[in-house]
Amino acid sequence: MTLKGQNIFLRALEPEDLEFIYLIENDESIWEVSHTQTPYSKFLIRQYLENAHQDIYEAKQLRLAICKNDTTQAIGLIDLFDFDPQHSRAGIGILIQNSSDRNKGIGTEALDLLIKYSFSNLQLHQLYANISTDNEPSLQLFTKFGFQKIGIKKQWNKINNQYKDEILFQLINEK
């Protein structure tokens, strides 16, 4: 599966993504956004990649690599998680690995592609995102696409022995 944009494309995960995913999952500086709490072994990630062929209805999630059009090397990940076909909804999250690739429109284009895919191909009625109140880039990104702030989960995440609030955003497909 490939979703192509003007500057980037989203593709299914491949066995060659092992090292990239290993680096992301074990980068403690981004654990707050990815809700990771412990390191992952290459063995576990290899097992995950071996099962990445499962479709979203079976796995209840869809994780895609974000790549620039001139390469197949992943620079980020975008996910649909907690896929619920009965209620036609899923959570959505995005991560661009290197700060040098951020603030260049990559996240905007990737999110646009996955929102369109979710509403047209998967026939979802709504998407939601959970974003820390101090993650200004993500707050701006999701707001740009019309995600509405539904509520604040007070002291929801414990980061470095400090509790942080998290905002629940929701985008309803009105079509």
UniProtKB/TrEMBL annotation:
Residues 8-170 form the N-acetyltransferase domain. InterPro entries: Acyl_CoA_acyltransferase, GNAT_dom. It comes from Flavobacterium haoranii. SUPFAM superfamilies: Acyl-CoA N-acyltransferases (Nat). Keywords: Transferase. It comes from the Bacteria. This is Diamine N-acetyltransferase. One of its GO terms (molecular function) is acyltransferase activity, transferring groups other than amino-acyl groups.
